[in-house]
Amino acid sequence: MEALVASAIGIMTAAGIYLILRLRTFPVVLGMAMLSYAVNIFLFATGRLAVNMPPILGHAGANTPGYTDPMPQALVLTAIVISFGMTAVVVMLSLGAFIEAGNDRIDLGEEEKTK
Questions:
Q1: Distance in angstroms (rounded) separating the CA atoms of residues 37 and 16
Q2: CA distances (Å), 60 to each of 54, 69, 72, in order?
Q3: Secondary structure of 97-112 in the HEC alphabet?
Q4: Number of helical (H) and strand (E) elements in the chain, helices listed first
Q5: pLDDT tens-digit profile of 27-85?
Q6: Looking at per-residue confidence, does 11 or 75 come out higher?
Q7: Which residues have C-beta within 8 Å of that of residue 13, sequence separation ≥ 6?
Q8: Is 83 helix (H, G, I), strand (E, B) or coil?
Q9: 2-54+63-113: what fold?
């Protein structure tokens, strides 16, 4: 289970970085969303991948952990809200740039290309 989650985090991070390096605004926005999903899964996995365990102390003995850590779950909820707000701001910035320039390319202006 841990290898599957680690592989998913790695693949999503690689895909996010690849999309961020594109020269169009829409893939950059998708790449940032992919990176935020990868970070959310990473934060969630730091609390131990325990199945059917409550986020509070149960009736298990002191030597056996009978609960999951609630802190990563709270961090993921906070990260989801922050990434949603960040995505909304980036979409509005890219939409404004598209309306102003008439295309969605991310490149240098003509005067910068000649140098």
A1: 9
A2: 11, 15, 21
A3: HHHHHCCCECCCCHHH
A4: 4, 0
A5: 999 999 999 999 999 988 887 766 676 666 556 555 556 666 778 888 889 989 999 99
A6: 11
A7: 34, 35, 38
A8: helix
A9: Helix Hairpins (1.10.287)
